[in-house]
Amino acid sequence: MVNRAGLDHVGSLTTGDAAATREAARRLGELCAGGEAILLAGDLGAGKTCFAQGLAQGLGVDAAVAVTSPTFTLHAEYPGRLTFNHADLYRLRAAGELDAVGVPELLYAPGAVLAVEWPGLLLEQAGGEALLVELEHAGGDGRRLTIRAAGTGHRKLAAAWLARVADGAGSGV
Ligand SMILES: Nc1ncnc2c1ncn2[C@@H]1O[C@H](COP(=O)(O)OP(=O)(O)O)[C@@H](O)[C@H]1O
Ligand SMILES: [Mg+2]
Fold first, then answer.
1. Contact, 56 vs 29, CB < 8 A?
2. pLDDT value at position 67?
3. CA geometry: angle 39, 157, 17, nearest 5 deg
4. Domain ranges in the chain?
5. Is the pLDDT of residue 168 over 70?
6. CATH code assigned to 4-171
7. CB neighbour burial string for 72-81, b if at least 16 within 10 angstroms, e if fewer
8. What is the pTM of this model?
9. In testing the pocket of ligand 1, which one of 50, 91, 136 has its CB within 8 Å of the most ligand atoms?
10. DSSP 14-48
11. Which protein residues are within 6 Å of ligand 1, measured from CB?
């Protein structure tokens, strides 16, 4: 599906607080057209779910709907301009279990965007396209987001997104 070795570094950005991470993610969501795979890596509390919340807003998910970490359900689906599929693979122990979450069907589904927290098992699979966001603590509420991408479409998306976030530097992102 996605091979870490095939992911090229596209750029990075730093957010000063949770709202800035949500705003950056919202802009990525707005650029999505369907079929994207957004992988969210980072330690517990790094901001993966926070990022997913912003992504949901950018995909037109009703702001009144709470997007939470689907750690126990493994997958949640939210209607929007594009369907938002949110998966959390933290509890998976083996790549074979990806089928149980329905990941093969969720990946690259037209009209939908898949975001995956704890994507390690997915990254061990060969081939595929994805945009990987690695979140790390950067002092206080700061977070450093390192963006990598594989595949032409996802590379273009990542570059367009970073350009857009840079344009909005005055908004605190
Ligand atoms: N810059 C930031 N970006 C994202 N979250 C932040 C930031 N600063 C503080 N936070 C806080 O860190 C926590 C991140 O939690 P969460 O998104 O659930 O992490 P994860 O899903 O990676 O375990 C939230 O409580 C959020 O408010
Ligand atoms: Mg989470």
1. yes
2. 92
3. 60
4. 4-171
5. no
6. 3.40.50.300
7. eebbbebebb
8. 0.94
9. 50
10. EESSHHHHHHHHHHHHHH--S--EEEEE-STTSSH
11. 15, 17-18, 20-21, 42, 44-50, 69, 117, 141, 143
